[in-house]
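All the exercises in this workshop are built on plain-text protein records. A record pairs a protein's sequence with a compact description of its fold. Backbone structure tokens are a discrete shorthand for how the chain folds in space. Once this layout is familiar, the rest of the handout is easier to follow. As an example, a complete record with its sequence and its structure tokens follows.
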Amino acid sequence: MAKARLLLAASREYLSAYALLFTLLFITHAPLLRLPYFWDEAGYFIPAARDLLLTGSLIPHTTLSNAHPPLVMVWLAFWWKFSAFTPAVTRTAMLMIAAFALLGLWRLARDVAHQAVAAGTVLCTALYPVFFAQSTMAHLDLMAAAFTLWGLAMYVERRPVATLVFFSLAPLAKETALVTPLALFGWEMLCVLLSRRRHPTSAVQDNSLGLYSSLRHALSFLICVVPLFVWLSYHHARTGYYLGNPEYLRYNLQATLNPLRIFLAVLIRLWHLFGYLNMFLLTLGAIVAMTRPPLRDTDGTLRRRIAINVQLVFAVVLVANLLAESVLGGAVLARYMLPVLPLVILVCISTMRRRIRKWTWWVALACEAFVFQLFVPPPYRIAPEDTLLYRDYVVLHKRAADTLSARYPHARVLTAWPASDELTRPFLGYVERPLDVVRIENFSPLNVELASTATSQFDVAYLFTTKWEPPHPWLSDVFLGKPLQERFFDYHEDLAPRRAADILGGRMVMYENRNNEWIAVVPIEKIENAGIGNPSSYP
């Protein structure tokens, strides 16, 4: 009976904490909930989840299947089925996942550190620009992070069944989440072997480096491979491909297996983990703290630190994910590190609390810097989805789509992806009726020049930022010059809109710019001669 009461009390505590976290996330993200879908959301995840909703098929048919596991799409389709197919429902459903991830982080931080450290870690993580922006977006990384953090919490609490459950679910959210249980499998195997070497005749093994001393427990992590293997086998049976269509496989694996490219990607990943978007403040705080002796609590004992064996586990998981994400994936996006970034925040805050008396001031400074970076672009290149730059992008694209629908509803529109999908798929939230689109790869000088030789095939050009550049750059090329970025990371420069309009033989009648996210509508002169639209009405 006493055990049941304790379980009930703990359940109430976690439900209350989850409700509080979700409420705070919902309030702070309320202005973003009705935004149309952005970039990869529009290009794959929303169409794939919609196909599941309409047909019940786990394999999408309105977009090329890339073998991503279906758990996030199942989650979204479930809420659409029993609520409504709207961006607000989608983004609220993702906020539920974000709150679950923060709850798991809170539990993990309480287990390994201190209640105050847990609160500071959750606050910093929630406000960190990448986590904040991704909290409402229909991507895979947030769910993978949630299950990974809960798996680690169960792991340090020595709950083997719950550990395997969470670590088996994580790869069904995103396949690369399998890296963490495999890293723990390798680490536990190493710890058991080292223990047996030091005490070959002892019945009780000294396993001070690892959390477990059982070879059987180490081997149990291989169970986490099974759900992903079942999914990939099913995908192969339905499509003929285990790892997605050939173009997707080439871009995300074959084209990345270059030693120089891997080395450069490792540098970028280190930057994402320890410096990106003002993260350097927490890193610097931890470094400063390490120069000082540990403090004592009021009872005279040294302030608690994260146990060395737990720190080693965090390091193993961190390095494994860093290396895996440096080898796999054509795009080196910061959101891919969400499953392990909270571990860096946790260790930094724990270190500061142990050694800096006014550590809360440093945490407050970091939080302020994170909020500042959400709204003010940094002086180096970032993906717009890492801050509220993505909102600028979506708002501008919605305005351009409204203009094209109102002024040129029957025109053939030259544009690039993802705007090409935005204009042809009304369910993405940009247009009520699909427009006729002529696709171009991007707005680099070469592609615009090629388009200028075929102006008879389109009537209006819709130009926009496909590679965001900082308004006042000063760190963009510190590590990587443009030749290396173009060679390994799909970099190009968009032509300035007026220059592109001149090359295409049109006149720019609409142009808006927000933090260097811009859109431009350029009708070709023949439209004016034919009386399509009324460009003179634009300011």
DSSP finds 23 helices and five strands in the chain. The two ends are 75 Å apart (CA to CA). The chain has two domains: 13-375, 386-537. The first strand starts at residue 412 and ends at 416.
